[in-house]
Amino acid sequence: MDFDTALRRYQAGEAERADLKLLVKQLLKLLVAKAPGHAVEVRVPPYGAVQCIEGPRHTRGTPGAVVEMPPELWIDLGLGRITWPEARDSGKLRASGERTDLSALLPLVED
């Protein structure tokens, strides 16, 4: 399976667990490529977590800056189907610490 196939299934409302996993991981890779660093940890359980954005490096324990959301919300953000403010207002996005506003980095792929 590839990104385009998983994306088509997601857009059709037919995505399976494997599709969600592939889309989440690929979009997280694009985020890291666009904003390398270790200042913010972006978590999309249960499929992945990455550190990105330049700034103070986190080495032990819970990072000072964390963004966490469900897979579908991350995919919608990455594709530009929802804006950062809309995601925050949804109540499904948790962001704490400095540099956790990812709006300047999104979307990662045009839907």
TrEMBL record:
<dbReference type="InterPro" id="IPR041629">
    <property type="entry name" value="SCP_3"/>
</dbReference>
<feature type="domain" description="Bacterial SCP orthologue">
    <location>
        <begin position="16"/>
        <end position="108"/>
    </location>
</feature>
<dbReference type="Pfam" id="PF17844">
    <property type="entry name" value="SCP_3"/>
</dbReference>
<protein>
    <recommendedName>
        <fullName>Bacterial SCP orthologue domain-containing protein</fullName>
    </recommendedName>
</protein>
<dbReference type="InterPro" id="IPR036527">
    <property type="entry name" value="SCP2_sterol-bd_dom_sf"/>
</dbReference>
